[in-house]
Amino acid sequence: MMPWFRRFAPDPDPPVRLLCFPHAGGAASAYRGLSALRPGGAEVLAVQYPGRQDRFAEPCLESIGALADAVHAALAPDQTATPLALFGHSMGALVAYEVARRIEHGGGTVEVLAVSGRVGPGVRPEAGADGERRLEEAELIEEVRALGGVSDELLDDRDLLQLALPALRADFHAVRTYRGPSGPLLRCPVVAVKGAEDPRVTTAGATAWRSSTSGPFALRTLPGGHFYRTGQLDEVGGVLTEVLGPPTRRPQRIGQVT
């Protein structure tokens, strides 16, 4: 399991495993609460990117493709033998999507891809003449403040901020340089979830995930901004429980999530 995956509530024989991908600057611990909820009876595996928490000494990866390649390579046969669903928030939605593409390209199956707080992979909100320019420190901090999810105390504490900056720089660069998919559509169902007041993810942007799959698609909107999940863990777990039903019912269940 180490170093890429964390199990906070191990289950040797779950009906489905839910592989969860953190946001930019985030870590596996962001999914500790969801692990305890076990949505749909799933065992939650939380991805731990290098350059943070217990992997702090490792160099960060600076592209979505490199992250997806590494996660896909780390998936053991016993993890993919059990039905596998993916969930990612913000940057994690892109990494989850790219891992799903790699699984399907290799002949595997993804039960459901749930993407949160991110526009479809063909939409580039960071596009522009300086889209690939690395943000200056002040610009990066302003971006993080605008999205929320990181306390002002951390951003105003110079010592703590210096510990967080390498991961934030790498992750924001990965998102800003991501160019979207090329190749066949996914076959798995896709469910997009967004906060109603998210300043970066419009309804149209979230609905653009429909173009990523030939399978069923649904959009769910919950109250809140980009980090709507904060304080709404039960609601997020409820959405995932709805879509992680028995395989024969999944398309119908996903069609009911609006």
UniProtKB/TrEMBL annotation:
It comes from Streptomyces solicavernae. This is Alpha/beta fold hydrolase. Pfam families: Thioesterase. Residues 19-240 form the Thioesterase TesA-like domain. InterPro entries: AB_hydrolase_fold (IPR029058), TEII (IPR012223), TesA-like (IPR020802), Thioesterase (IPR001031). Keywords: Hydrolase. GO terms for molecular function: hydrolase activity. The keyword Endoplasmic reticulum does not apply. SMART domains: PKS_TE. It comes from the Bacteria. Belongs to the thioesterase family.
